Amino acid sequence: MDSTAARRHVVITGAAGALGRAVASRFAAEGARLALIDRDLQHLQSVFAHPEPDHGGTLLHAADVTSDTAMAPVAAAILDAFGTVDVLVHVAGGFEMGEATHAMSRESWMRMMDLNAWSFVAVTSHFIPAMLFQRHGKVVAVSARGAMAGAATMAAYAASKSALQRLVESLSHEVRGAGINVNSVAPSILDTPANRQAMPSVDHTRWVSTGAAARAVAFLASDAAEAVHGQHMVLDGLS
């Protein structure tokens, strides 16, 4: 991977989830310093009670990523500790089956939009200025293959992930001239404990492993992807 990996400073949201853990492990193995954000500090601390060694320390912070007010002091603390942020990986988000589109509640709509779209704005607003100042950086969001089309009782989720992709594309156009790459990975079904529990009869070997998704994130955060801007790397697995 990058020759500069050992010196990189990486921020990961949704770090305590299955994919967040895999992404954190991947960057830790490369020697990066990590700032890990999740909504529950105790859970975050329990997940990373024994962090990967030899990566210069890990910062753990609790924050509601949908709240600009909550993100501001956390981002300030990370930038104060690191001095710079080279990679921002926005894993945080949510999925839920909803009502039929004609019967959808505003609460369902706003919940998905806040978690999957607005959170990207609330998080990047505090780290992009530092990347603009240093004139380099990588931003990788986790969108979804489901952003490509609607599906029954999934309107709010699909729309929110589609909105996230449009935000990724727009931000990419705004900052690429300053040496910042903004992209997303778009997995189908991730092989996580939660998905196995929710779909016990489905062949999970056809799903996308969290390790494979983490490797895709690492690629988009690497120098090898310096010419990639505003793209969504679809991870189909065998589905």
Layout: helices, strands, pairs:
Blueprint: E1 9-13, H1 18-29, E2 33-38, H2 41-47, E3 58-62, H3 68-82, E4 87-90, H4 106-134, E5 137-142, H5 155-175, E6 180-187, E7 190-191, H6 193-198, E8 208-209, H7 210-220, E9 232-235
Parallel strand pairs: 1-2, 1-4, 2-3, 4-5, 5-6, 6-9, 7-8
Helix pairs in contact: 1-7, 3-4, 4-5
Order of helices and strands: EHEHEHEHEHEEHEHE
CATH class: Alpha Beta
Mean pLDDT: 91
CATH superfamily: NAD(P)-binding Rossmann-like Domain
Instruction: State the domain count.
Output: 1
Unreliable stretches (pLDDT < 50, length at least 5) are 1-5
Oligomer: single chain
Instruction: Report the total helices.
Output: 7
Verbal overview:
This protein is α/β, with parallel strands linked by helices. The chain has a single domain, classed as Rossmann fold (3-Layer(aba) Sandwich). Helices cover 42% and strands 18% of the residues. The chain has 7 helices and 9 strands. It has helices at 18-29, 41-47, 68-82, 106-134, 155-175, 193-198, 210-220; strands at 9-13, 33-38, 58-62, 87-90, 137-142, 180-187, 190-191, 208-209, 232-235. The strands form 2 sheets. It has a 7-stranded parallel sheet with strand order 3-2-1-4-5-6-9, with helices on both faces. The chain has a two-stranded parallel ribbon with strand order 7-8. Helix 6 links the parallel strand 7 (190-191) and strand 8 (208-209). Helix 1 (18-29) packs across helix 7. Mean pLDDT is 91; it is low at 1-5. InterPro entries: NAD(P)-bd_dom_sf, Sc_DH/Rdtase_CS, SDR_fam. Belongs to the short-chain dehydrogenases/reductases (SDR) family. Keywords: Plasmid.
